[in-house]
């Protein structure tokens, strides 16, 4: 048996576009809207990073004029759940709690 020689041709394989004949075109600069959106996203992520680092005391205002307080510990990526330690509720203190984001109407942060 003879081994077939490796193809040394610069031709593209069948069905593949010829990349060499297409000039590389520079991308247009990002629009002001894209830049503003990027900056807003960066500020948003920085806020949550600082919240995780500082672990401030928070007051969670919930349905039916209920307020609970505790120490913020973290949240999931979608902000569906918030971990709060030393959660002071009308029924007592819970050492470690996870509060559903849908149950929170607003969050007050004490730095």
TrEMBL record:
Pfam families: Gemin7. Gene3D superfamilies: 2.30.30.100. InterPro entries: SMN_gemin7. One of its GO terms (cellular component) is SMN-Sm protein complex. GO terms for biological process: spliceosomal snRNP assembly. Signal peptide: none annotated. Residues 1-41 are annotated as: Disordered. Residues 1-10 have a biased composition (Polar residues). It comes from the Eukaryota. PANTHER family: GEM-ASSOCIATED PROTEIN 7 (PTHR14679:SF1). This is Gem-associated protein 7. It comes from Hesseltinella vesiculosa.
């Amino acid at each position: 048996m003879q081994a077939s020689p490796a193809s040394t041709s610069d031709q593209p394989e069948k069905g593949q576009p010829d990349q060499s004949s297409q000039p590389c075109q520079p991308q247009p600069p990002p629009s002001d809207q894209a830049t503003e959106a990027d900056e807003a996203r960066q500020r948003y992520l920085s806020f949550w990073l600082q919240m995780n680092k500082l672990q401030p005391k928070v007051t969670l205002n919930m349905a039916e004029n209920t307020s609970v307080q505790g120490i913020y510990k973290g949240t999931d990526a979608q902000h569906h759940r918030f971990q709060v330690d030393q959660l002071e509720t009308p029924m007592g203190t819970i050492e470690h709690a996870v509060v559903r984001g849908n149950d929170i109407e607003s969050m007050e942060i004490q730095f």
